[in-house]
Amino acid sequence: MNVPVDVEGRRSILRVLLVITLLSAIFFSVFNWMVGLKLFALLEFAVACLWGGILSISKTTPNLQRWSLVYLISFLSLVLIGIWISKFRSGLYAWIFIFPILSYLLLGRRLGIVLTAFSVFIGLGALGARVWQQDMDVHWIVLGNFGLCALAIWAMAHVYEFKRETMVARLHEMATRDPLTGLLNRRTLIETLDLVLYRAKRRSEPVTFVYIDIDDFKLINDTQGHDRGDHILLTVAQAIRSGTRLEDYAFRPGGDEFFIIFTNCTKSQAKDIYARRIARELHKVEEGLSLSVGYVQADPGYELSPEQLMQQADQSMYAAKRAEKLKSQT
User: Fold this and answer.
1) Same domain for 133 and 268?
2) Does residue 16 sit in the same domain as residue 164?
3) Averaged pLDDT for residues 126-138
4) d(CA 170, CA 163)
5) How many domains are there within the chain?
6) Is 226 part of any domain?
7) Nearest to 90 by CA among 135, 55, 121
8) Whole-prediction pTM
9) Residue 256 catalytic?
10) Which stretches within 35-63 are classed as H helix?
């Protein structure tokens, strides 16, 4: 399941975290310098400079996940080094508990689970090493409490992100799919066509845009009822699915109109191979149903916009419809 990423939401979270931890790093850098931990203070200052650089580009960078990962790894490394060399290490253990939440918020479920596992197990290892050195009588109690608390936070973060992804995917499906046929809707048409044309131009590949209209669909609705009309629409949609490839895009923008984007496909291929396949699948179920189809091929040097391409396909479809009417009258 491809889940849309809330990039702007993660961008805002990263910026807030950067401001808070950047100020904290500067404060503790000064503090540790004053108490004699000068090497650690310099390290904190260097990390603060890194975070300042990330903050400066975080509002516009297209590589948000990459910089979020850099931020989290540098943050975790600073905490672990502090635990190892600082006199105030007990307070630093508290930061380990926040990494499951931050990892999922900034990186999502798949990458978040990896960084969370790393941070929790490394944190447990650092704590275990310290507890064993200082008081062997209570190490199981300390490690047990730390581990259970970290795992509880990890589990809650994982469940929350899973539920969020599921809900976002469901909402995205509702926003981009036609509820009757399940094909892509008008909302995604221009955006998808623009993206396909851009990729085709870079790869020097042809794209064929197809406009399909069901003949006499209004008459079918008026004489046979809307249930029959819906059945026809579902039948055509299923024929389109069966007759197209995984790399193609099929749309039902509304009414009895259907659009297909054939990637890396010429107009003649679309007519001779895929249109015949769609017609064959359709006639298996609805033998008397006819379609009017318009074709437009966009070559790599094509300069028309998606809207102009759709207009040309519309004109081609209506020309085919008029030609079929003239043929039936003679």
Assistant:
1) no
2) yes
3) 61
4) 11
5) 2
6) yes
7) 135
8) 0.63
9) yes
10) 38-57
The C-alpha atoms of residue 247 and residue 124 are separated, in whole angstroms, by 47
Exposure letters 155-191 (e unless 16+ CB within 10 A, then b): eebbeebeebbeeeeeeeeeebbbeebebbbeebbee
For residue 94, which of 35, 13, 54, 153 has the smallest C-alpha distance? Answer: 153
What is the domain range of residue 27? 7-176
Confidence of residue 46 (pLDDT cuts 50, 70, 90): very high
Q: Mean pLDDT over residues 116-143, rounded?
A: 70
Domain boundary among 176, 210, 241: 176
> Which of 6, 256, 299, 314 is labelled catalytic?
256
Cα angle: 16, vertex 19, 25; to 5 degrees: 135
Co-location of 193 and 170 in the same domain: no
Domain boundary among the residues 125, 142, 176 is at: 176
Euclidean distance between CA atoms 158 and 90, whole angstroms = 27
Residues 250, 241 contacting (CB under 8 angstroms): yes
Count of H-run helices and E-run strands, the chain: 12, 4
- Residue pair 16/106 in contact (Cβ under 8 Å)? The answer is no
Residues 101 and 221 in one domain: no
